[in-house]
Amino acid sequence: MDLYQHLQKLPKVELHLHLEGAIRPQTAVELARKNGVSLPHSDRPDELYDYNTLDAFLDVYDAISKTIVKVDDFRRITYEMLQSASQSGARHVEFFISPHAHEGVPFARQFEGIRLGISDAQVDFGVTSLIIPGMNRELGPERGEAYLDEILANRGDDVVGLGLDYFEAPYPPEPFAKVFARARESGLKLSAHCGEAGPAAYVRGCYEVLKVDRLDHGYNVVDDPALMAELRDAGILFTCCPSTTQFTTPHRDLGSPSHPIRVMKQAGLAVSIHSDDPPMFNTDLNGEYVIAMDQMQFSAADIKTAVLATIDHAWVDETTKRNWRQDWMPEIDAVINAL
Questions:
Q1: Which is the catalytic residue, given 20, 168, 196, 288?
Q2: Fewer C-beta neighbours within 10 Å, C or N terminus of the chain?
Q3: Would you tell me the crossing angle of helices 300-312 and 285-294 to the nearest 10 degrees?
Q4: Distance spanning both ends of the chain, measured CA to CA
Q5: What residues contact residue 73 under an 8 Å CB cut-off, 6+ apart?
Q6: Domains and their CATH numbers in the chain
Q7: How far is the C-alpha of 203 from the C-alpha of 5, rounded, in Å?
Q8: In what side-by-side order are the strands of the sheet with 161-165?
Q9: Alpha-carbon span 117 to 36, nearest angstrom
Q10: What's the longest Cα–Cα distance across the chain?
Q11: In sequence order, what E strands does the chain have?
């Protein structure tokens, strides 16, 4: 049995996954044809996801999002995303959505389809999931307030948090303090993409000003040793995505001792492994765990620590976390001890 097959048996919690970024290329082509939408540079599934910078990736991401129009489109992409995550060993998924990216599609229609996909996937694959709407920082805090209004109007028990994403520089987090405070007061958990294209100061702003519960990516924190020590002591989780760094950051060599994920782990930060936009970066959740071990020098103990961190930092109640640990620990230990 190879490493991929072995790690596939490891129970996992996926905390950094984008619905629109998880669309299979064949699905994107089929939806584009069905809904009369033009795709960028190619309508061939094997050529569609072609980019090597963050802004080029986001151009494709936005174009793909416009192919999703009807309730069943949203149901389909949600179901397929959760099916793929389950095949990688995911038992629970907390995924980002980008409602603003679907121009002219009412939020209520989007949520209807997404919830159907969640329900069907739980029945068919046993995977549970929660929704984290991501706020497009490029649209500014005023649009962010209106966005939060829409989210709260369509909120259910499955909407657990608010994220901040899209192109990071030059959009510092501090202007979003008010809208994030309102989200927190409404009972939502908070996370933010930071330190991917922006400096370590953006990581600090997300932590100190937005007061997020989790930091997504966060790689440029390595440029501020004092901040690293502070976040280590605070125990805040960084949801890291190895494959993405080859496309959206200067850190293209996953085997380099100076790769920030490796530096963050060695500095004692709480680091977990996730898939981000898996088909768009030719990966899956289990493949990211393989990369962590095979290229980034994660030991078996590091893998176990990362898995347990995802349980501890999931946005579910403490009873559920305790049950997961109790129920999954024999499987986790069997996989780890055999590595």
A1: 196
A2: N
A3: 140
A4: 11
A5: 31, 35, 67, 113
A6: 3-337 (3.20.20.140)
A7: 35
A8: 12-14, 90-97, 128-136, 161-165, 189-194, 214-217, 237-240, 270-273
A9: 23
A10: 53
A11: 12-14, 90-97, 128-136, 161-165, 189-194, 214-217, 237-240, 270-273
- State the amino acid at position 191 in one-letter form: S
**For residue 16, is it left (φ>0), alpha (ψ between -120 and 50) or beta?**
beta
Q: What is the pLDDT of residues 23-82, one digit of tens each?
A: 999 999 999 999 998 887 667 787 788 887 878 888 888 889 999 999 999 999 999 999
Q: What CA–CA distance (Å, rounded) separates 247 from 74?
A: 27
Instruction: Tabulate helix, strand, coil % of the chain (nearest 5).
Output: 55, 15, 30
With beta carbons less than 8 A apart as the criterion, state whether 74 and 106 touch: no
The pLDDT value recorded for residue 239 is 98
pLDDT recorded at residue 268: 98
Q: Which two tokens stand for residue 202?
A: 């953006």
User: Is there a contact between 101 and 61 (Cβ–Cβ < 8 Å)?
Assistant: yes
Q: How many CA atoms lie within 13 A of 271 on its CB side?
A: 27
Q: Which residue has the tokens 């953006």?
A: 202
Give me 175's structure tokens.
């202007």
CB 90 within 8 A of CB 122: no
Known catalytic residue: 230?
no
Backbone dihedral angles phi then psi of residue 114, each to the nearest 5 degrees: -60, -45
Burial zone of 254 (CB within 10 Å; 0-12 exposed, 13-18 middle, 19+ buried)? middle
DSSP string, 123-136: HHH--EEEEEEEEE
Residue 120 burial (10 A CB sphere; 0-12, 13-18, 19+): middle
User: Tokens 């619905």 sit at which residue?
Assistant: 19
For the entire predicted model, the pTM comes to: 0.96
Q: Please spell the DSSP secondary structure of 281-310, one letter per residue.
A: GT--HHHHHHHHHHTS---HHHHHHHHHHH
pLDDT at 25: 92
pLDDT tens digits, residue range 137-194? Answer: 999 999 999 999 999 999 999 999 999 999 998 999 999 999 999 999 999 999 999 9
